[in-house]
Structure formats: structure tokens, C-alpha cells
Amino acid sequence: MNAHPLLRQLLIITFISGAVLLSFKYVLPLIFPFLFAYTLMRSLMPIVLFLQKKCHLPKWLAANGTLLLISLAFLGVFLLIGWLLFQQCKLLLTNLSIYHQIYTKSIESYCHNILRHLDYYLGLQKGSCLIFAKEQFHNLDPSSFTNLYQNIGRIALQCMGSSMRVCAFLLIVIVSFIVLCKDYDHLHTMIHKNRYFSVLSELGHTMWNTGFAYMRSQLIIIGCNWAICTIAFLLIRNPYCIVIGLFISIFDAFPILGSGMILIPWGLVKLFHGSFFAAAVLLTAYLLTVFTRELLEARLIGSNLNTLPFFTLASIYIGISLYGVCGIFLGPFAVVLIRSIYQIWMRSA
């Protein structure tokens, strides 16, 4: 085999991969509101055109009315969920000191028997290991909780800053949507006359059918598992059902990790304490989340990405390493984009 074509292909893939990953890291955060507004405009344009033709509404009224109705619907749902999350987080912070005491007593109770056996097998005086463990625990524990309480104000300020950024993002999206709808015909003509229209159209079509479909599938899976976990914790009368359900559903989306790392130990603890109903609910919730993810991943993600599960897992891991939690979506999305650009490049060459 000639090594030069292979080396050339490797260099091309490396160049495309570097360009895509760097663009996702530094360029995407700057243009994401405008890309989101354009995607929203293309998604809602059939409704706008329908209202314009069938109801004889002016284009600005049809576009703004459609955006207003959909925004109000989503805003109502998000405000409801956000308020419930806020109330449960507030309750959790209020009861944090109580949980600290319960946690301390539980640790002492569970470790007492283990440490007593250690005293016996190590030939130490009865209670020696327990005294040592208490000293180490009290040396470490207060500082962690003190730091937590000291950081509550900083966390609150960060939340306020994030809220302001979200509001600015939504404002940019709304204004961009209105401007794009107003100039839709001119923009549509300008894009079609561009010399790279065929390449961009093919790339956009591939990304819509693969990358965006993957992101939509992941959001659907997270939403379904969130609902399952929330209902499960609601059945066992947990006051933080929405917060815990959201945390477990996001945790379940990470590679290797899963809802079982939380639900199974929790269910076993409930079982050992004699809470058979709570244990059955938690273990059933685990089985349902596993079944939901396996079913929806096979039906939605596998067919959309058209890649082996190993490469999907690797792309998610690389994405998380580079972009944090957003890498769950950006990693596979980057793989699809790199593959599409490479295929177009090789055909043109």
C-alpha cells in the first residue's frame, strides 16, 4: 500500500478535527444564539407561512404571534419546573444542618460494628479504632461544611449571573428571530445564489438528520428518565423528588456511569432498613431507566449517528473532557460534523 495517500488522509482528518474542536471551544459560544435563532426560524417558518396564506395575516404578525405563543407555552413549563426546583433546593439548604447530624449518626452506627471487629482482629483495646475514626472524622468534616456554608453566597451570585446570561441569550434569540423572519425571502435568495450552496446544503442536511437528531434523542432520554425518577421519589414521599430526579437523569447520560450507581445502593439501604415498598420502587425505577435508555438509544441514537457504540462512547468521553457536561451532546455532534466535512472534501478532491 502506498503510504503517501494514507498520510495525506490522516493529515486531512487531523486538520478537520482540530478545526472543528477549536471552533466548538471558542467560536460556537459566540455564534450559538444566532444559530439557535436561525434553527428556530426554519422550524417555525411552515407555521408562519400557513398563517400568512390561510388566515391572510401580515408576515410580521404571523411570525411574532407564532413566536409569542410558543414562547409563552415553554415559559410556563420552565417557570413551573424552575419554581419547584427552587423550592426544593431552598428546603434542602434549610435542612442541611439536620442532614449533617443524621449523616454523622448514621456513619457512627454503621461503622461501630466494623471497627469493633477490627479491634478484635488487630488485638487492640476495645474502642480504639472507633476513637481514632472519630478523631479523623471531626478533623475533616467541619471544614468541609464550613466551606460549604461560606460558599453559599458565592453560589447564589453565580446563579444570578447565569440567570442574567440566560435572559440576554433569550433576548438575542428573540430579536434575531424577528429580524430573520422579516428578511427571510432576501436571505433565502442570497443563500441559494452562493457558489457554496450545494456543499453547505448537503452539510446542513447531514447535520440536521444526524447531529441534531442525536441531541434531540439525548434530551428525550434525559426527560423520560427524569420523569421516571421524579415519580419514583414522589411515591416514596421524598421532598426533593424533582431535584434528585434531574440529577440522576443527567448522571445517567454519562458514559460508564448510570442511574444504578445511585438507585441500587439507595434501594439496598432501604431494603436493609425494612422499607420494602421504598426499596421496590427504587429498584423498579432503576430497571425502568435502564430499559428506557436501551430502547430509545437503539431506536433513536444508533440509527441517527450510524456509528458503532464504541465510537459513540469514545466521542462522548472526549466531548466531556473538552467541554464538560455539554460534551455529552457536542462530542458525537463533532464526530458527525468531522465525518461529513471529510467526505465532502474527499469527493471534491
Description:
The protein is mostly helical and 349 residues long. The protein has a domain at 96-193. 89% of the residues lie in helices and 0% in strands. The protein has helices at 3-54, 59-94, 96-122, 128-182, 184-193, 197-209, 211-235, 241-252, 260-272, 276-305, 309-323, 327-348. Helix 6 (197-209) runs parallel beside helix 7 and helix 7 runs antiparallel to helix 12. It starts with a helix and ends with a helix. The mean pLDDT is 79.
Shape label: globular
What's the order of the H and E elements? Answer: HHHHHHHHHHHH
First-last Cα distance: 20 Å
Number of helices: 12
The helix/strand class is mainly alpha
The Cα radius of gyration reads 27 Å
Work out the number of β strands: 0
Q: What share of residues are in beta strands?
A: under 5%
Q: Percent of residues in helical segments?
A: over 70%
Give the biggest sheet.
none
